[in-house]
Amino acid sequence: MKITALASAITLGLTLCSGAYAQTKQPVQAADLVELFEKLSGKHPGVRKAHASGVCATGQFEPNVQAEEFATAPLLSNGPLYAQVRFSLGGGNPNADETAPGTRGMGVQISLPDGTRHIFTGNNFPVFAGKDPETFYGFLSTLLPDENGQRNPQKTMEFVKANPSVQANVAWNQTAKAAASFANTEFFGLHTFYYGQGDDRVKFRWHMTPDLGVETLSAEQAKATKSPFLKDKLAEQLEQSTVSFTLHAILGTDNDVDNDPSVQWPAEREKVVLGKIILTDSGGEACTPLNFDPNVLSAGFTPSDDPVLRMRSLAYAISFGKRLSGQ
Asked: Residue 176 sits in a domain of what CATH number?
């Protein structure tokens, strides 16, 4: 059963489900998550264990020097900077169906003149599936098939009912549509970061919006489209027009949670433009060896105490090591 269909079944079944599926109390390690990804998608040596299917692109980051809250950041004060980008599909299957609804990802590595880097990673959903690694692991574990290759939607329903921090992501999956193009997809940073120190510290989450607008495929369009198509579509758009994204910082208040990516901040929060990612070409393998760790930040920026954000560095490192060694 596809996860989008499963999400629909979960939503319908929440009010009917009387049992409680408690999340695991055992601390989850990064290696546990990587192993679980391989169980869910199968082992594919030499590729990423999550977001396995992807497309590389290059371009430049043109900073907005008028962003007062970040005016002293080297990221914004060195002029246009080289950017390497990777667009991807969720999951560990390198041959994933691109016409199916679900997760799309974007990783951006910006290179500064002093040799440092700043990495942004995001997904097309606004909330994460769990407040911490344990909840996320517990949710994904319910999707594992049994010895007969069958999944148990009832088990997943019970877990979702007992763990509210999963519910917003499940609801998003129920209505998600397939992306018409990576160039027409918005991406949410999910995690909270800080810029500066002391009383002047700025709390923010980033948000990437496509300047060509958001477009998705209807069910009929998806059915008529042959997968894969996203790589060719991106290359075609680059030939015909300018493909760019506006990078925003959503500014948080003292009341906005900074350690729970399953909670979306209110829509009325102030947004500041940090700059634009302007693509110049796509294809090739330039991004393949890159490790898009979202905790790699340029001077002045620091990560929040988000347990999912912390876990990403460890899980990415394990996946990176496996890729380099052909595992």
From this structure: 2.40.180.10
pTM listed for this prediction? 0.91
Buried b (16+ CB within 10 A) or exposed e, 23-56: beeeebebebbbebbbebbeebeebbbbbbbbbb
**Overall domain count for the chain:** 1
Helix axes 167-175 and 3-13, enclosed angle (nearest 10): 120
Contact 163, 23 (CB under 8 A): yes
Would you list the DSSP string of 254-280? Answer: TTS-SS-TTSPPPTTS-EEEEEEEEEE
Domain that includes residue 7, residue range:
3-324
Helix (H, G, I), strand (E, B) or coil at 315: helix
Per-residue pLDDT of the chain (327 residues; tens, 9 = 90+): 444 444 444 433 333 333 344 444 579 999 999 999 999 999 999 999 999 999 999 999 999 999 999 999 999 999 999 999 999 999 999 999 999 999 999 999 999 999 999 999 999 999 999 999 999 999 999 999 988 888 999 999 999 999 999 999 999 999 999 999 999 999 999 999 999 998 889 999 999 999 999 999 999 999 999 999 999 999 999 999 999 999 999 999 999 999 999 999 999 999 999 999 999 999 999 999 999 999 999 999 999 999 999 999 999 999 999 998 999
- SS3 for 16-50 is CCCCCCCCCCCCCCHHHHHHHHHHHHCCCCCCCCC
Q: How far is CA 32 from the centre of its chain?
A: 19
In sequence order, what are the residues at sequence separation of 6 or more whose Cβ sits closer than 8 angstroms to the Cβ of residue 188?
Answer: 122, 123, 124, 125, 126, 205, 207, 208
